[in-house]
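Subgroup meeting minutes
Present: P.N., E.W., G.H.
Scribe: E.W.

1. P.N. recapped why we're keeping a running log of single-chain structure predictions: easier to compare across weeks, and new members can see raw inputs and outputs side by side.
2. G.H. added today's entry (205 aa).
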Amino acid sequence: MGKDEPRRSCIGCRQERGKGELLRFVLDPEGRVVPDIAAKLPGRGAYTCPDPACVRAAVARKQFARAFKGEGRVAPVGALIAEIRLRLEERIASYVALANKAGKVVSGSDTVMERLRRGDRLGLVILTEDISADIGEKLAHLAERYQIPCFRLLDKDRVGALLGKGLRSVVAIGESGFVPSILKELERYGNFLDGGAVDEQNPRV
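Output recorded in log:
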């Protein structure tokens, strides 16, 4: 966070943080309160920490209504949290798709395993949530050996579709400018998971 970054208060816990550390919400054209994951949508914004507990507190205390001066419809808290998680996943997926178009992605368990053992310059490994336990464990151990961040996210169908291929259980992003952006979004996604674990090398349990 830059020292001159504007600061905002979480409407759930009231803690003040830099805008870049918070989740932003706006009203969509239909007047619904929606998460603005990229923080670029027009209009007045309200902010919470990237924590489901703060979102729940904001809904329970009707803080979104206060922030938007009585305007806007808020979905049931479970649906709102699910929408935030989905949009966080979509943002990560969009970066992976861009990296693929730039030729920075390799995929498939055999290919990624070979690249790891060969010592290729990989910046990030993503395992799908439905990868086989045995293969996932081997890939995670290899990534750890070579000190490459390794995360678990999405499923084989989704990853394959992003790459324009069939089912894919693992992708690796070569060292590039995409890696820091994806890592930042993965960290935010992991922080938001309610007691889950996304980082294979730093599990949140």
